[in-house]
Amino acid sequence: MRWILVLAAILTFSTASNAEGNTNPQKNKNDLTQFDMPLLLGDWYLFNDDPEATKENFIAIKLTLDSNYAFTIDIQKQDYSVDHWEGLYTANEDTIILGLNTDEPQVYGYQANHNMLNLNGVTFTKALSNSLAGMWSSESLGGSDLMASDVEKMDLLLQPDFVFMFRVSNDDGQEAIHQGVYYTEGDHLVLLYADGEHDTRYTLNSDKLTLEGENGDMFAVLNRVTE
After folding, report:
1. What is the DSSP secondary-structure string of 42-72?
2. pLDDT tens digits for the chain (227 residues)?
3. How many helices and strands, by DSSP H and E, does the chain display?
4. Burial zone of 100 (CB within 10 Å; 0-12 exposed, 13-18 middle, 19+ buried)
5. DSSP readout, 61-126?
6. Phi and psi, residue 13, nearest 5°
7. What CA–CA distance (Å, rounded) separates 61 from 184?
């Protein structure tokens, strides 16, 4: 299978990449909307559906790509030990290079959407690292943008497949709806839709989600809808 070749390539450069640091002057976590390939960001997983029936000694591979052009790879083996490697990467619209800080960087062709990454014919699936997915409805709203727009209520649906629906309404019952895809990094939640994108900081505390925009333009406390 083609994913065997990907695993073999990972093992080829993993030792060298682990020895290098991952400091990169391009790191800028303040505005993720400036990152050229936002759909690449996140935690990507490849699972071995039947490890007992194959010769490959792994259960799952986790590939994490950050906006500071650092990557990590964790391979969980059948004995439940984990091999970990990290390094630097770069990417354009169809090619990603892992291990820039090694003697033998690995070049892959890729295709990606909001929740699938096809790497040299091998499909990785994106997953959230927390319980952010769900239906959220506003408890309190504030901020200059929301107040100027007379927003009275906000509903936000975050699906586990990284699709969202965002709805705001005012006292008169007028509402606006945005739909699109989203991604996260650290405490950033970025909504991408047809005519724009919006980067917010979020805090998740059990069934309460707090969103904050830049310069006080938006502040929202939302409760998880459980019914």
Report:
1. EEEEEE-S-GGGSS---SEEEEEE-TTSEEE
2. 344 444 444 444 444 444 444 434 344 455 777 888 999 999 999 998 877 776 777 899 999 999 999 999 999 988 889 999 899 999 999 999 999 988 889 999 999 999 999 999 999 999 998 899 999 999 999 988 777 778 899 999 999 999 999 999 988 888 989 999 999 999 999 999 888 888 999 999 989 999 998 777 889 999 999 87
3. 2, 16
4. middle
5. EEEEE-TTSEEEEEEE-TTS-EEEEEEEEEE-SSEEEE-TTSSS-EEEEEEE-SSEEEETTEEEEE
6. -105, 0
7. 20
Q: What is the pTM of this model?
A: 0.82
Contacts of 52 (CB under 8 A, 6+ apart): none
